[in-house]
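Workshop exercise sheet. Pairs work together: one partner reads the sequence aloud, the other fills in the structure field after running the prediction. Swap roles for the next sheet.
Pair: D.N. / O.F.
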Amino acid sequence: MGLVIASQMEDGFNASLRAHPTGPIVIGAPEATPWEAASEADVMLVRPSPPWRGARGGRRPAAWPGRLKWVYSASVGVDFYPRWLLDAPLVTCGRGVASEEIADYVIAAVYLQAKDLEGARARSLAEWRSAPLGRVAGSTVGIIGLGEIGAAVARRAVALGMRVTAARRRRHLPSPVEGVELLDDLAAVVASADHLVLALPATDESRSLINAVVLSHAKPTAHLINIARGSVLDQEALLAALDGGRLGFATLDVTEPEPLPADHPLWTHPLVRLTPHISSNYTLLRGVLFDKVAVNLERFVRGEALADIVDPVAGY
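Structure field:
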């Protein structure tokens, strides 16, 4: 019997998998209990569907990881899944698939905040008056987390003539982008930033890392952009900083939880721009994801090392 892949992806994606030169047998994973396919497959391709989130607080199923040798997460973050998913012999993720799209979202948010063309729009003769616009070139973007997404943001910011400061967990590593100033701690990055970008992975260590103490170092005019996970930001501290005039504005593509309760103040706060976790533009990137899966599948069949391996200890 050939290699069996259990997939949570849509029919078109699975059809492309079946046509892969390695000739895998592709079966669907049960929608309500996708982990049950572990007993039937060598490889599982998963996506962050609601059943995985619902299983986060429970025990590992007795059948997991079954006969699985490799689990591939379509998302770069694996915090959505229960911890026991990482008990599989090997887990890889879609690292880098959406980095460019998310970086474009960040730069769009920067321009929207700096230039505010809608606010300067003249709708009548009475509104025809000069209005100062903010600057992008010469301003500072501070990036917390300098992985694939943070690096993509940095490349764009440097090209636009912005100063770029950053902090990363692996401080001994050089910056992947020329022109980035790596600073020693979060406070220094926060204090430097006109636009503060949160691009760090969601782990136990990073939960509420951006808290009241960290935000106390921000400029009162600073613009915070969160495209990481809602869990890395203390939302109560954010609201207090905005309401207290200690932070200028926030663009949030992620929250904790998602979606927020109907009565949560972030929905209607005048200093918050909230979007429904769309920065990855993921539905348009299936081809990019498939290419990464296809390359790793060839490596797997040949017994070679795979790309984008998730460290089960670090959680990303």
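Discussion prompt: Residues 139 and 160 are 10 Å apart (CA to CA). What would you look at next?
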